[in-house]
Amino acid sequence: MNMLECRGLVKKYQSLTALDHIDLCLESGRIVGLLGPNGSGKTTLIKLAARLIQPTQGEILIAGERPGKSSKAIMSYLPDKETLPEWMNSRQLLKFFQDFYADFRPDKARNMMSSLNIDESMSLKKMSKGTREKVRLILTMCRDAKIYLLDEPIAGVDPAARDFILRTIFQNYAKDALVLISTHLIADIESILDEAVFIRKGEILLHRPVVSLREETGMSVDAYFREVFRC
Predict the structure, then answer these.
(1) CB of 52 within 8 A of CB of 40?
(2) Which CATH number does the domain housing residue 163 bear?
(3) Does residue 2 carry a pLDDT above 80?
(4) Is 186 in contact with 33 (CB distance < 8 Å)?
(5) Which of 47, 53, 204, 212 lies at a 20 to 30 A Cα distance from 197?
(6) Degrees (nearest 5) of the Cα angle 10, 179, 130?
């Protein structure tokens, strides 16, 4: 099933074109890397899918429909910036997500946090950056969503936290769902990807299965990315 589809998608911010006539089709049951340098349009594309901004031209479809109330019900979104109230602790956050999302699995999230020895009484503000990112990701992945939009989930955290984040993504998404991961840290996520989408200056340069890309180029996705985006 086509879970995310872009048709002639354009997004402009005054004179800046962030996305330039994007055509893209992503199916369910896949983990897809949206790969590109900073400023390439990754976050803009994800925000359009999450209906946080509106396209200038063209359209984006989620499970065959324009983003709206129905798409939000099947979508779990992790933004690139922290948006949760810093005064909340993990106990309060679990209750907040349970009240807000019908598909949230609080027992699973609680068990994952407990396995990491996260203090339920500690506020987000007092947690380390790595711990905050783990909490945010657990909350995001413990929904039974059809599409997961993860914007730079491993940026700014240490290698140990990255390993946990990748395991959490790989082990906890519904197998009939689409996971779209935006990042410029290709080597760290390559092992879990089914497909790679290269984006630069608002244009899609490449969309290929990872296995095919390796076979045809004789290179890892990270090495090929570095070749394509060489300064």
Answers:
(1) no
(2) 3.40.50.300
(3) yes
(4) yes
(5) 53
(6) 105
